[in-house]
Design brief:
The chain is built from 13 helices and 19 strands. With 510 residues, the protein is α/β, with parallel strands linked by helices. Strand 9, helix 6 (187-196) and strand 10 form a beta-alpha-beta unit. Helix 2 packs parallel to helix 7 (210-221) and helix 4 runs parallel beside helix 5 (160-170). The model is unreliable at 395-424 and 430-510 (pLDDT under 50).
Length: 510
C-alpha cells in the first residue's frame, strides 16, 4: 500500500508597524497520496435519536430508519460497524451483543432489519450515546474511527457539564459528524460535538434528504487513511498563542482544545485525514508590549510542526512564523490573500448568525438588515451555496412586495404564512458554523476580490475591517490592497529566504 505524506505550509504577511504587537498567520496541513483500505482500517458507529419527539411528525422516525439503512448499504466489506439506539440511555441494536461486527452482505442485511424496528420513546442524552460509541471504538484502536449522530431535540436528559465530560473523554479517539433534523434541536449542542470531535455539523431541512446525506457521510469517511494527525505549536519567551481556529473546510475555534506538550509548546489534535485533503488553521499570536522591535531583519515569533504519524511521511521540519518591523507605512497594511479570504468568510458567518438570532427573537427588521448584508458579502465572494440558501430567506422590499423572514415575497399587506420560523432559521445553520462554500474547497488559495470605490455600500466598512484584522482582531474582513513593487510575493507566504525553521537562540527547541 502506498504510504501517505503530510505537508505543512505557513502563509502570512510578516511586516509589522512599529506599534504592532500581534501577528496573524494561516497554517495549512495537506495530506497527499495513500490508499484507503476500508477492510483493514475503518470502523463506523451510527447513533440514531429515538426519543419521543421523533414521532412528530410521523414521517421523521421513518426517514431516520431509511437513512440508517442507506448508510449501512454503502459500508464496504470488512468495515467494523454498529448501530446505537439513542434515548436517555444508549442501546446497541446491532449487533445484538456489545461490540463491532464486520460488514458483509449478511451483516448488512441483518443491520437493515434491525433498524426497521427502531421505535421513538424516551428522552435525549447524547453524552450516553457518545460514551457507548467510545467504548465500542476502544476495541479497534488502530482503525480510522468515525461516527454519525442524528438528533431532532435537545440534550434534556443530561446536563451540559456531563455532556462536556464525555466529549473530553472522546476527543482524539474518534471523529463524529452530527446532523439536526426538524426544528427542535439546539445548534449550540451539535456545534460543540462537532468542534470537540472534529466533525461536520449541519441541518437537514427536508426529512427525505436525510438518507442521501448519510450515504455521503459514510462515503467520505471511507476515504480516510490516517486515524489522527496532530499539530505542535511553539512560542518564544516574548510571544503567546492567543487563538487557533480551523477555518477550512469547517470553522471552529480550537484554542481551548490545545494541550501542553512542553515548555511553551502545545499540541492540537486535527482528527483523521483522507488520502488527499487540505485543512487551514488561523493562528493569532500576541507579543509582549515591551518587546523591542527588530527593524530590517526577520524575528521568529513562533514555530509549528506536525507530530510524526505512524504509517505516514512528514515532508517538512518545523516552520517559522516570522515578523519584521518596518517604518515603511505600506507593507504592514497589506493583507495576505488567504488571511483576507478567511476573514471575509468569518464576516459572512457573523452576518448570518446575527440575522438568524434577530429572526428568532422576532426582530424582522434586524434580520432583514443582517441577511441583506450577508447577501452583499456572499455576492462579492461568489458564494453560490449561501446565496441559494439565502434566496429562501431574504428579499428586498419593493413597492409591490413586502419582505418576509420566511423567504417569500408577498404583497405588502399580505401576512406571512410561514409556520416554522425555527425550522427556517436552521436551514442556514451550515453557514452559521462557518461552512466554506464550494468554490473555496480547493487547495490553492484564491486571489482576493477587489472592490472599486463606490461599488458597494460595504466597501468602506470592509477596508476598515481589513485594517483591524491586520492588528490581530479575528473576524474582520476586507479585500487585500494592491501590492507595490518589492512587497513579498504571494507564493512565499511572507517568509523571507533565510528564516530558520528551528527557533532562534533562546527558544525552547534544540
Amino acid at each position: 500500500m502506498k504510504e501517505p505524506s503530510l505537508g505543512l505550509e505557513v502563509h502570512q504577511n510578516k511586516f509589522l508597524a512599529e506599534g504592532d504587537r500581534a501577528m496573524t498567520a494561516i497554517v495549512r496541513v495537506v495530506s497527499r497520496g495513500g490508499e484507503a483500505s476500508a477492510a483493514r482500517t475503518a470502523a463506523e458507529v451510527l447513533m440514531i435519536d429515538c426519543s419521543s419527539s421523533m414521532r412528530f411528525p410521523s414521517t421523521k422516525i421513518g426517514e431516520a430508519r431509511r437513512a440508517a439503512a442507506a448508510a449501512i448499504d454503502v459500508l464496504p466489506d470488512g468495515v467494523r460497524f454498529a448501530v446505537i439506539q439513542g434515548t436517555d440511555r444508549a442501546k446497541t441494536i446491532y449487533p445484538a451483543e456489545d461490540g463491532l461486527v464486520t460488514a458483509s452482505e449478511r451483516t448488512r442485511a441483518e443491520a437493515r432489519a434491525a433498524v426497521e424496528h427502531l421505535a421513538a420513546v424516551g428522552g435525549t442524552a447524547m453524552g450516553a450515546w457518545l460514551a457507548k460509541a467510545r467504548d465500542l471504538f476502544d476495541g479497534v484502536p488502530d482503525a480510522v474511527r468515525h461516527a454519525i449522530l442524528l438528533t431532532d431535540g435537545r440534550n434534556d436528559s443530561q446536563t451540559r457539564a456531563d455532556l462536556m465530560t464525555v466529549l473530553n473523554s472522546c476527543e482524539g479517539r474518534f471523529v463524529c459528524d452530527a446532523r439536526g433534523i426538524g426544528d427542535g434541536w439546539e445548534p449550540a449542542e451539535l456545534t460543540q460535538i462537532g468542534r470537540v470531535l472534529r466533525g461536520n455539523v449541519d441541518s437537514v431541512v427536508e426529512d427525505d434528504a436525510l438518507a442521501g446525506d448519510f450515504r455521503q457521510l459514510i462515503e467520505s469517511a471511507m476515504t480516510k487513511v490516517l486515524p489522527e494527525v496532530r499539530l505542535r505549536i511553539g512560542t518564544m519567551p516574548f510571544s503567546r498563542l492567543r487563538s487557533i481556529k480551523q477555518v477550512f473546510p469547517d470553522e471552529y475555534d480550537l484554542t481551548d482544545r490545545c494541550r501542553a506538550a512542553g515548555v511553551r509548546e502545545q499540541e492540537l489534535s486535527l482528527g483523521s485525514f483522507a488520502s488527499d485533503e487540505t485543512r487551514d488553521y488561523q493562528l493569532i499570536l500576541d507579543l509582549d508590549p515591551d518587546l523591542e522591535p527588530s527593524f530590517g531583519q526577520d524575528r521568529q515569533l513562533a514555530w509549528t510542526e506536525l507530530v510524526p504519524v505512524p504509517g505516514a511521511a512528514v515532508e517538512e521540519d518545523a516552520l517559522a512564523i516570522a515578523g519584521r518591523w518596518t517604518r515603511d507605512p505600506i507593507p504592514p497594511t497589506l493583507i495576505h490573500p488567504m488571511v483576507s479570504k478567511y476573514a471575509a468568510l468569518a464576516d459572512l458567518g457573523e452576518a448570518l448568525t446575527a440575522g438568524g438570532d434577530a429572526y428568532a427573537a422576532g426582530d424582522r427588521a434586524g434580520a432583514e438588515r443582517d441577511w441583506g448584508r450577508a447577501v452583499v458579502l456572499a455576492t462579492a465572494a461568489g458564494d453560490e451555496e449561501i446565496l441559494s440558501r439565502l434566496s429562501g430567506s431574504w428579499r428586498s422590499s419593493t413597492r409591490r412586495t413586502g419582505w418576509c423572514g420566511c423567504g417569500r415575497t408577498r404583497p405588502a399587506a399580505t401576512p406571512c404564512t410561514s409556520s416554522s420560523p425555527r425550522g427556517f432559521r436552521k436551514s442556514l445553520f451550515r453557514r452559521k458554523i462557518g461552512r466554506c462554500p464550494r468554490e473555496h474547497r480547493s487547495p490553492a488559495p484564491s486571489a482576493p476580490r477587489f472592490h472599486p470605490p463606490g461599488r458597494t455600500s460595504a466597501s468602506a466598512a470592509e477596508d476598515r475591517s481589513a485594517r483591524r484584522f491586520r492588528d490581530g482582531h479575528p473576524g474582520a474582513a476586507g479585500p487585500a490592497p494592491h501590492r507595490p513593487p518589492g512587497a513579498h510575493p504571494r507564493g512565499t507566504g511572507g517568509l523571507a529566504v533565510g528564516v530558520p525553521k528551528r527557533p532562534e537562540h533562546g527558544g525552547n527547541r534544540p
